[in-house]
Design brief:
single chain, 118 residues, mainly alpha, 2 domains, 5 helices, 70% helix, globular
């Protein structure tokens, strides 16, 4: 299984610019990238704000923002997103040895997307 090279990100333009790390900007970007994911975004936001209120903590909201920022960081690069989804399917259907290799590739894809946000 070949690992995608850094060139997938470098030298190409993402589908959308990277938004600010705040819920409204993330919501707008999620809506542009994948309108079907918007319902999950809204449900996650509702759960995060309720948990934050119940716990008197900002951590659930911060986790929500970081989670969706990472999602956007990957999804704005169509080739990375496609490979990440393929890896997820492989992990769900494969033997342990294959799962470890694919899990490592998933980690590398997420790292590539995070590096591209810097």
């Amino acid at each position: 299984m070949a690992v995608m090279s850094q060139s997938v990100v470098e030298g190409r333009q993402p589908a959308v610019p990277l938004p600010a790390r705040e819920p409204a900007a993330l919501r707008a970007t999620v809506a542009r990238l994948d309108p079907a994911a918007l319902a999950r975004f809204e449900a996650d936001w509702t759960a995060a704000t309720a948990r934050a209120r119940d716990e008197y903590s900002l951590l659930p909201a911060r986790y929500f923002v970081e989670h969706w920022f990472s999602w956007v960081a990957v999804e704005r690069w169509p080739a990375l997103a496609a490979r990440l989804h393929a890896c997820g399917r492989i992990v769900a259907e494969s033997q342990d040895r294959t799962q470890r290799r694919v899990a490592a590739e998933i980690s590398q894809i997420l790292q590539q997307a995070e590096t591209a946000t810097a």
